[in-house]
Design brief:
- This protein is of the alpha+beta class.
- The protein is built from 7 helices and 10 strands.
- A hairpin with a 6-residue loop joins β9 (213-218) and β10.
- It is globular and about 50 Å long.
- It starts with a helix and ends in a 33-residue tail after the last strand.
Length: 263
Amino acid sequence: MWRWLMPLLIVPAILYATTGVWAGRPPPLEVRRVTPVTLPEPRDLPELLARLDAWVAREVPLHHATLRPGLTDAALDAFEARQGVTLPPALRALYRWHDGGDLFGLEFLSLEHLEFNRVSWAEIAADRMTDLDEGIASHPPGTIRLLYATGDWLPFLHDGGGNHVALDLNPGPAGRVGQVVTTGRDEEHRFVLAPDLETFLREYLRRLETGRVTVRRLSGFSDEVWEVRLQEPGGRAPDGYGVLADLFPAFGAAPERMDTRWP
């Protein structure tokens, strides 16, 4: 099994510095003031993505500069043919918009890296190490299958340490196909963050535009590194996190506040 697990830990780890979520780091060098805006709900997904693009370009230009050009429908069709899946329309739209970069407070994976990670998780699952399934918990219960690994995830976000936010193509009996979930080697407690990707994107944009976000430049790095962190109720944006759901407070089944046992 470990021959498949190591790429999940080593290859993406070089991206970890961009997330800025190490626990116990020094105080930030600068906190950027974010001005809330009052706008109607986006009419459709293209407007939503255009507004997200504009927000990132305005508030975190260094992150915007990392966003790669979007993919063609032909490239997305080729991925579907190789992987034997049909991408949800919102995921196709996301990758037509940009093919990865620094976004959502994590690493938004290129489609190439999404495919690499999906194949790696499928190969781990094929080893049938069922003892690894024993500690897995689903929030809400029954929505996520209690499996350590499966090829039924489309992992589009990564924390650099073997954990993902993914679309779940084969949920538990109480779940929905295409739900947005947390998964990964450290994610024994897994959370449904949204019933589908568009709902996830709408809630994320809503948090940004209403100012429920902290943008700060991190100290301790040789290069200029910025963090985008959604706030808990009351405006707190804690350093570090215990599970990926802490980065998305009150999304779906995610708790409103970070577990205080974590730093």
